[in-house]
Amino acid sequence: MGKAGKALKQVLESYGISQNRVAVLMGIGRSNIYRWVNEIRDPGAEMVLQLRDALYQINPAAAEDFVKLYLGRPGQDNDSS
């Protein structure tokens, strides 16, 4: 569990973006972002797209990094467990 959450946590920390700022842009409660970042729950596919869009509004590079971290690179084994 938590691939999107791990990617989101890394991007938020790297770019100094608050969970609240992302939540406000997405129109959801900050507790949802908290659950994803702390790998309590995984966002659904639609929420992953909304996360990308919210990050893009804040910083396009952050959105790009989120997608790269979430999807990985072609030919790369992303399952480190």
Describe the protein's topology.
Layout: H1 3-15, H2 19-26, H3 30-37, H4 45-58, H5 60-71
Helix pairs in contact: 1-3, 1-5, 2-3, 2-4, 4-5
Task: Provide a quick synopsis of the model.
68% of the residues lie in helices and 0% in strands.
Please name the defining characteristics of this protein.
81 residues; 434 Repressor (Amino-terminal Domain)
What is the annotated CATH architecture?
Orthogonal Bundle
State the secondary-structure class.
mainly alpha
Percentage of β-strand residues: under 5%
CATH domain fold name: 434 Repressor (Amino-terminal Domain)
Major sheet description: none
CATH top level is: Mainly Alpha
Helix percent reads: 55-70%
Please tell me about this protein's structure.
This protein has a single domain, classed as 434 Repressor (Amino-terminal Domain). The longest helix is centred in the middle third of the chain and has 14 residues, at 45-58. It has five helices and no strands. The chain has helices at 3-15, 19-26, 30-37, 45-58, 60-71. By secondary structure, it is mostly helical. The chain is globular.
